[in-house]
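Fold this complex.
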Amino acid sequence: MEVLTILIPVSLFLGFVGLAAFLWTLRKGMYDDPDGDSQRILNAQYDDAPKPVKRGEG
Amino acid sequence: MNTATYRPSACPACDAAPAAEALAGRAALPNARLLLSVPEVHCAACISTIERDLSRMEGVNSARLNLTLKRLSVDAAAAVGVQDVIARLDRLGYDAHELDAGTLSMTETDKQGRELLMRLGVAGFAMMNIMLLSVAVWSGAEGPTRDMFHLISALIAIPTVAFSGQPFFRAAIKGLRAGRMDMDAPISFAIILTLIISIYETLQSGEHAYFEAVVMLIFFLLAGRYLDFRARAVARSAAQELAALEVPRAIRLVDGVESTVSVAELAVGDMVLVRPGGRVPVDGVVTVGKSEIDRSLLTGETLPAYAAEGCVVSAGEVNLTGPLHVRVMAAGKDSSLHRMADLVANAESARTRYTTLAERAARAYAPTIPLLSIGAFIVWMYISGGDLRLAVNIAAATLIITCPCALGLAVPAVVTAASGKLFRKGLLIKDGTALERLAEVDTVVFDKTGTLTMGTPVPANLDTHGATETCVALALADASSHPLAQALAQALRARGVAPARLDDVQEVPGYGIEGTWQGQRVRLGRAAWVGAPAREMTAAYLSIGTQTGAFTFTDALRPGAEDVVKGLQAQGKAVLLMSGDVPHVVRDMAQRLGIADWHAEALPQDKAARIAALHDAGHKVLMVGDGLNDTVALSAAHVSISPATALDAARAASDMVLLGRDIGPISDAMRIAGQSTRRIRENFVQSGVYNIIFVPIALLGFATPLWAAAVMSISSITVTLNALRLK
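Structure:
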């Protein structure tokens, strides 16, 4: 049962990591345009190099 | 928007633009953010064409298209006007309208939605973690291990309830202050009481703690709330978009100097300039200029009317060919447009507030939750001879099992599934209760112009003309932006006719186009001006020298119109046709579609009165219309639909908007509405059955936390699956 003292904190930590990742995607507005995102993946424009990051975006 | 400029193909983007360099580090001028509605975007090519083209435009820093909201936001230097962007989009083949960023205030809705989503996320992750620990307890953890697991669960559950439960607590407090008993109060009561009892049990090394059930309850209820919120946010943003579309401005002339003012500032006696293609902003008299006026949106007449000095024009009409100076006779509150708005407001206030199925269910069910658990507590106190802990435990189990998890999802899940289905078919639901109301409809009233027909003229007798005539007509028609001329030019080009070479081509506002062809004067325009005998139908007249001819036009039926009428009649609905157009046109249309009951030359008040009469006779009426003359009828009807090409006011007054040009989705909507109401009822019955089975178990004291969690998740999942069965 001693293994629990490691496993429980680990599971809680992973839970928090998942939650933090979810909140991050939410803050970054990744759920604002689901239809657009599903179409943008078909666009070959930024396939070779990522879009240059500009201020005031994202 | 003028229906004559409606563009059939929405994706000219598919022959996409060449690659472009991104404009990096443009001028350091103060930037403005422009918002535009682009209703026709629908694919990946649309996104890349628009964004690439605009980013190449002078002064534009970035452009981003939101396909979900069909909305374009442009970050540009202050020098870039909305008109420039609209013109650019028009060249790409997209209709666009300016949106007032202030009226929209999308951020507020966004913030609320994100907040709800965040609470949902927190509840979800907490639920998963507690569930992991609970599985250990259910599978037989004993003694100190169980107590430790309960304690950790409590440490996760308490902050989660404090954070994620807030929407329910706030709504409950608001409801109780107002003296209402809705679902929020019993839910909050159950959440808090169960949490307290569970904490107490944990500290006493008790066997049962309901942490996972409490958090699960919050999670499922929040999921229902979020779906509900999303449906309403879509509706609200559609409504805001419509309001933001109307930027009422007029060009005032003072001593020959033009200045743009808001319509509200105009006074009687002012002089207003109305450019070709512009909407007349006021009621007035034409003092200078000749033109033709399109009244179709106001009255339903298809034939443009002639306007010259001394003619009276009304607000809302569209000026077609020449600039007009109009002296204001009535502006603002007294204008015919505003009187119409008043009629709409009256009709809306007369429409009784609709009580939804969910509200009725909640009203019936809400009091039983606290009553049952209090009853359980009292009875068990009596039976056990005052064992407080046992009685409280049973009361808690009863509370958590009666709590309406499935009930909270029953309606939003169905409405979300149904509106998603309809949106893909091209129908936007603006009002959440519209589906339920649509399911009750037994009578359908159609407007003609622009609703059953496209509202755009199509040449009908091209074959009766010789090659010379068509060549000359095309050359003349090309020179005008009049809808008839454009329709003619388009149809002739489609047949491969080449334009004749003309000299001295000029447009005579209000009359037509004239020019010289091989030394002869040629004219295309009104009958009297051309010197041709006038016909009874819409026509453009051509003269070559002394020889005359006529190109007649019909209004093309909207695709799917015949099927919709047949489909509705097959479903046993009464179908009526009401139009402001002249009787013979309406009669022809009614015969063509097989509608026996038709009314012509109906004024806006007549339409509304007819609908009120039907309503008094006990019928539930669906009104489908697009014009300003339909707005009163649209808001008086039980439920209403308008096409996207409709006037802003008409779309604002209706519950659903047809996004495509096909009218077919209306019969789908009727079918889906009927189905979804059935699904909602089934969901209520399902959650009722769960309660009938498990409440006695809880009351008898056999319920364990495992039971509560199982009942809650199974009932929520079956309700959601039932919603997804919609076809």
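The interface with chain A takes residues 19, 22, 24, 43-44, 47-48, 52, 61-62, 64-69, 75, 110, 114, 117-118, 121-122, 125-126, 128-129, 132-133, 145, 152, 156 of chain B (CB under 8 Å).
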